[in-house]
Amino acid sequence: MPDGNSAYMQFNDNPFDCGCDVLPSVQYFEGSYSNKDIYQNLSLDPAIRCHSMPNLARRNVNSLKSQTFTCNDRENACPAECSCNLHPHNKSFNITCSNRNLTTPPTTPKFAPIKITQGFNRFLS
Asked: Per-residue pLDDT tens for 28-40?
């Protein structure tokens, strides 16, 4: 139980969304969040488990690591014929256009770091 200078959050029996919006909380609990003074002495019930995100379902929230977060991105400059993932921990943007039967390379965003995978298509010279 918390003392006078700390807080304890209890979310038991609630579906906990472990999508990318929870990343700052994960960073806080692993000690890498830059705005720690906002939360001071916050603790989280160790029984909380992820509900959403198939790859994280039923995992304990306290066991999550920020470097494992990969966010699907369909809103921020992802070419329509590709799939895109944002890796928030290192701010990289991965575009996968492989095996799409493309005849020309897609238009890609002009920011870095970016990784583009375009193998096994039908690009014409």
From this structure: 777 776 665 655 5
